[in-house]
Amino acid sequence: MKALVTxxxxxxxxxxxxxxxxxxxxxxxxxxxVYPELEQMGVKVIRGNLKDREVTKDAIKGHHIVFHVxxxxxxxxxxxxxxxxxxxxxxxxxxxxxxxxxxxxxYTSTASVVFNGTDMKGVDxxxxxxxxxxxxxxxxxxxxxxxxxxxxxxxxLKTTILRPHLxxxxxxxxxxxxxxxxxxKGRLPIIGHGDNKLDITYVENVADAHILAADSPKSAxxxxxxxxxxxxxxxxxxxxxxxxxxxxxIKRKVSYKLAYAGGAILDFLFKLFRIRNKKPLITRFLASExxxxxxxxxxxxxxxxxxxxxxSLEEGLKRYVDYYLQDN
Length: 328
Fold this sequence. Notes:
Elements: E1 2-6, H1 11-22, E2 26-31, H2 36-40, E3 44-47, H3 53-60, E4 65-68, H4 79-99, E5 104-108, E6 120-123, H5 136-151, E7 158-164, E8 167-168, H6 175-184, E9 190-191, E10 201-202, H7 203-215, E11 222-226, H8 234-244, E12 253-254, H9 256-272, H10 284-291, E13 294-296, H11 299-305, H12 313-327
Parallel strand pairs: 1-2, 1-4, 2-3, 4-5, 5-7, 6-13, 7-11, 8-10, 9-12
Helix pairs in contact: 1-7, 3-4, 4-5, 9-10
């Protein structure tokens, strides 16, 4: 099988690439960077930007399946920047798939597209999109989901959406390093009561889910939540991580209302003064994400894809610590 992975040099994308190579597939990646180590592994690197419609469409030619992993992921930023990549870029990928008769498109979304700012316990794929979003990332991923679903069946194209939540593991470039950095400075508080639960997903398990979705005859036109299937209290997990890195446990607490209000003020000030070279310490979306319970039912992925998280969270944490200590 000839597979194209957009964002194949990134965190999740690279794990998907490695798993495809391991089973003998011919793999290309579409990305902005240079990845000589992947080229040495036999990967064809096609450089380009998702915002470039014709370049994106041309990159898809000659493949059988596309894993559209690339997106703009952040808790804060200009809406247009997210829209251009996550929505317009996805439309460019779909147009290329339709033009070149691609058999299947696997789209990497996020469970945050259904997060409504309240506690969500074990909800499944029937959960509706919220009426309002607190950040451009989940909103633009929702819009992208809609066009991916609408494309299913066009010129024989079969589309599938995966919704992982809080991906973690070695080579994580943003989430864990940022939390570690804040904690080392003693600036990371528990937001809310500290007993909320949420889904974490080890990166290799997410990559496995993509391969399963690609191979499954049942996945066409379907959406699947992907996680460990075992929600955790994030503050307990972070303390476990920090203890292995000789970082003091989190003791200070900030109420949800105070964190949300602080996020609202920073959201307003950063937009008012057009601050783009820094990120606010807290946003309304982040305050809600960290303080509310939200975990999802993965029964559909288990039943239709045969998905089971092969790497436990405990083992995943160990692997990340080993990687972090070696890299630092």
